[in-house]
Amino acid sequence: MRIETTLRALADPTRLRILRLLSTMELAVGELAQVLGQSQPRVSRHIRILCAAHLAERRKEGSWVFLRSAIGEHRAPPLGAAAARLLAVAEDDDSAFAARCAEDRRHLAAIRAARQSSAEAYFARHAAEWDVLRGLHSADGPVEAALDKALGKHSLGALLDVGTGTGRMAELFAPRADRVTGFDRSPEMLRLARARLQNLPADGVDLVHGDFAALPFEAESYDTVLFHQVLHYAQEPESVLAEAARVTRPGGTVAIVDFAAHDREELRTAHAHARLGFSDEQMLALLSQAGFVPAPPVALPGKPLTVKIWTARRDAARAPSPARKTQSA
Questions:
Q1: In terms of domains, do 136 and 246 share one?
Q2: Which of 18, 133, 211, 281 has the most C-beta neighbours closer than 10 Å?
Q3: Average pLDDT value for the chain
């Protein structure tokens, strides 16, 4: 990084607002354009300047482009870290800038709340046919067999099935677990899961409603945490995995079944996917950041989508990273 390039990049109020938004989360360029009230081409010009100055980084996913801060904690060179501190101090000290940043965050929260409502409406409409819909993307049998193998032969202990849906994974792995908690945001899904699991011992299964970015469980409560075809619905997967790490006991396991990175744009609109799968590089970085030690992934090629299974152990020697939350006013 060069000081003159950095200072030129910072010498614009819109770019300062972008950097403060990126200090809390990765954002799609379209989201930034909506929050800033500017055209996408104009926002893209600002982004090019920030990326050229190594203050931000792009990531392409299908036809969408995501942007993240390149000057976050533990990642930036000294000049970038100094720029990040300067912006944080500016928001504390400059009341007009602080008010503008707070308004930007409120606007972003409203945009994301609308998207979340749309996703919840989708789940409510399709709860009864969820297992059939999932089967359109990949055959259940080979995936479930590969997941069972990836989890090893030992007891799963206390198992948390995040995004349990109709309860299929909870039903499948209950014989290997001491107890199972099925967790989902959709009441309709939990109603179907309750019917599916009614023959299991009542003291061995719990069904809990809530948000996977704010799990309502004590730290280090579970030995195994499972995400089966659910992480691609997360707008902030790093926050979701940070929560998973928080509730996983040291030495415990997280298992993620999801799609490899793909370009099927219709899944965003037709099926409420927030992410078009994950590359191995993305997933391994997310797991490591959260405090997990990843194992080699397993690939199950399909037509048209490949399913991947990523497993990792919670590092007993390292505290999980806190989830990055959107700041409120």
A1: yes
A2: 18
A3: 86
How much is the average pLDDT of 126-140?
60
Task: Report how far residue 314's alpha carbon sits from residue 246's, in angstroms, rounded to the nearest whole number.
Answer: 9
Res. 326: pLDDT tops 60: no
Structure tokens at 168: 């299929």
Query: Is residue 83 within 8 Å of residue 4, measured between CB atoms?
Result: no
- 3 state DSSP class of 113: helix
Q: How far apart are the first and last CA of the chain?
A: 32
H-state helical runs in the chain: 3-10, 13-22, 29-36, 40-52, 78-93, 95-126, 130-135, 140-150, 168-173, 187-196, 237-247, 266-271, 280-290
**Element holding 227 (H helix, E strand):** strand 222-228
Domain span at residue 208 reads: 130-314
CB atoms within 10 A of CB 107: 16
Q: Per-residue pLDDT averaged across 88-116, rounded?
A: 87
Write down the pTM of the prediction.
Answer: 0.65
The percent of residues in the chain predicted with pLDDT above 90, rounded, is: 52
